[in-house]
Amino acid sequence: MNLRRTIAMSRKEFIQVRRDPRSLVIALFLPLIQILMLGYGARLDANHIPVYVFDQEGSQDSQALLKGFQASQYFDVVKVVNNYGDLVRAIDADQCKLGIVIPWDFSKRLDDAGRTEVQALLDGTDDNSAQLAEGYAEAVVGTYQRQVQLDWFARRGLSQQAMVPLSVDYRTWFNEDLESKDFIIPGAVALVMALTGALLSSLTIAREWERGTMEQLIATPITALEIMAGKLGPYLLIGLADAAFSAVFAVGWFGVPFRGGRVAFFFVTTLFLIVVLGIGYIISVTTRSQLGASQYALLVTLLPTTMLSGFAFPIDQMPATIRAITYVVYSRYYVSALKRIFLGGAGIPDLAPQIIAMTVYAVVIGYFATRAFRKQLQ
Amino acid sequence: MNELPSILVDKLVKRFGTFTAVDRVSFQIRSGEIFGLLGPNGSGKSTTIRMLCGLLTPSAGRATVAGFDVARHAEETRQHIGYMSQKFSLYNDLTAIENLQFFGGLYGVKGSMLAERIAWAVRMAGLAGSEQLLTGELSGGWKQRLALGCAVLHRPKVLFLDEPTAGVDPLSRRQFWDLIHEMSRQNVTILVTTHYMDEAEYCNRLALIEQGRIVAMGTPSEIKQTATRGDLLLVECSPLGGALAAIKQAPGVIEASVFGAALHVVVETGRQPLTELPAFLAAHEIKLDRIERISPSLEDAFVSLTGGRSLGSEAPR
Question: For A223, which residue in chain B has the nearest alpha carbon?
Fold first, then answer.
């Protein structure tokens, strides 16, 4: 490889990116917009879920249960209604996500049998929110239920029965507050890399064909390998700068912790960029059209990274076949490495499995990329 | 030193599927010679040049450029050639100087040599003062001279020019050919394609190419002499269409074709066309405005050699 020719190519690419509004937007604004959108938009936790209540009894006991909902940060008791129909209409009109119905014999059954039931109506149009609401509601009811049980046993002089024999004390590691932004934003860095890397590189060869500059280029002594290295080098640097920017923004703006090694961060990012840039380059070489290439590039990079990398949708919860597919989705290794670096404080040695997988991908894609382009017309 | 031809083309063939674009083309070009490939669009000129630059692989036959086999040693060949493609193909979003620096880098021209060559190219192209303009903002003539500058920064021994003056104003074309002749004097071998007849006259030697085959080769005057088997007459008359049909039947007429607003008629030598033809036309009720002997142009030669087909395009005025 001739360094002079490669550098000439890199300089030219830098100048072109600087003067091309489309590339500038991809390189500079897209990362910012993505991080902002994902940081604010893609929250998976639910706070202040609006609740309507239909209390048929209106007793002290039923009020005590409702206080539990009012006190919870997850719920806002918006309104108390007087009939079942109003409750149903409120859910239909999207005025509340959860309706609580307390039966007319609530406290009577509590006193008689020590057990009773309440009905919860859930808006399942957004199943994630519904599940969260269900879980939180169960927790509120569970707390109330324990209190009632203790009282019930105590009144009958059976206080020793009221002792809870075993309790689990949970402690969450890496994301102590179980905040979804801390879970999502590190993965969003992978989305930024996939998008900017693939888009920039998918345009690079196609642009030369479209503008008619390719013929002149391949009539010079520059080799196919030098063209690739010269073209992708600047994009690798731009990608790393975008990664640094995204990380700083994640920490500085969104308060996401960054506990791991910076070297590890840039190392895995470089590996990932090699894969993504290589894919974009291969697509660019084969389609020869900027529009077609950018669309294919989005399809094979952004889509799997969004859906199958574990960035927002946990891989463990996927059906077995889909889970099997995620093993070939190269971005899952990067996303898991990012999460371990940001939240788990991982360094390079801790990330051996991810690094090995990504290195394999980088080598394979890199190999095909070097073979993809032949200095020939048609 | 100059015994070996600078470009040697031996029965070169290029097929695209079932279509044969270049059909057993052979020629040799000496060092420092300006050789023109003349033919209509789609005749195989560009395909030939692209094979010689290593951009297309020949289907059969052999070609060497500056001593290198173009099919087997494409990369070595490229170091010794300059190429200007048919379409303008520098980077419009780079300045003139950035284009020169880029191609200088690609050809591996080093440091002070590069600065010197770029200064030369800027002078040659008349770009002094406009070096920092984006190439897209330059006029056609400037762009074309800049492209030439980029193609010869590394002082190639062989220069390929594919329709270099298409879409350029006459003055710029004139200047461009002065530059070509200057390079030829410095022993650069030049292969140029064109369908402009007046440009073909600037070449040392020509090959007329039609449907992938060479139909004639030689100096411009040789081609004109061999091609025209008889005396050539210019006939202005009306109506033109009826006159053409009629005159082809006239005694002694070998062929006739429309040239602009007049007819070019080839008549067997040894006849008296200046008296015979007016009588013939009068008998056919065709009004004759002018008739005179002219010397054949390359266009006449081409029409004659290809059996009536013209080049399809005349030089812009």
Answer: B75
